[in-house]
Amino acid sequence: MSDETIAVYPGTFDPVTNGHMDIISRSARLVDRLVIAVAVNIGKGPLFSLDERVEMVEAEIAGMGNSSSERITAVPFDSLLMEFATEQNANMIIRGLRAVSDFEYEFQMAGMNSRLNRDVETVFLMASERQQFIASKFVKEIGMLGGDIGHFVSPAVRDRMLAKIAEVNAAKS
After folding, report:
1. Is residue 47 part of a domain?
2. 54-58, 62-66, 67-71, 129-133: least confidently modelled range
3. Average pLDDT, the chain
4. Whose CA is closest to 96, among 51, 134, 153?
5. For residue 133, what is the domain's CATH number?
6. Residue from 27, 136, 154, 160 carrying the catalytic annotation
7. Which residues span the domain enclosing 157?
8. How far is Cα of residue 145 from the mean position of the Cα atoms in its chain?
9. What pLDDT digit, counting tens, does each position of 90-120 carry?
10. Which of 78, 93, 111, 170 is a Cys-bridge partner for 40, taking CB atoms 3.0 to 4.6 Å apart?
11. Which one from 44, 130, 137, 151 is the annotated catalytic residue?
12. Is 151 a catalytic residue?
């Protein structure tokens, strides 16, 4: 492992929300390099393809407009998280917590990951107060039902979601 602090922030990012971007920007201040690991995760029934999700994350990172965005990359993955972390030379996993209810699951996962690779630490970041309630599945549901998702995602992600929802609805017709 290098002397750099390299962190992996895994997720489905379907879509990438303001909550995700909050964790990304705050994580970037803590590490030398941040890898956003965009999971295949077919089990969650993603609205967007893996390539589309990676593109959206990359666009949001580029839109951060600060020097930390140069140290952040988005990479797709479909393996065990700890295998992916090893491939990236990571020594840290970042996990965002929205509420206390997230903690039990995340705590169990951190324990399992530690058994797989003791050299990689899991760090939990609480979501900022304004972002705590945002969940991608709720954003998708609100969008599919015609609600305003502008408070939860960037304008670019909102536009992509509206186009994707129209595409999905047209295919159903």
Report:
1. yes
2. 129-133
3. 89
4. 134
5. 3.40.50.620
6. 136
7. 6-172
8. 23
9. 999 999 887 666 777 888 888 888 888 899 9
10. 78
11. 44
12. no
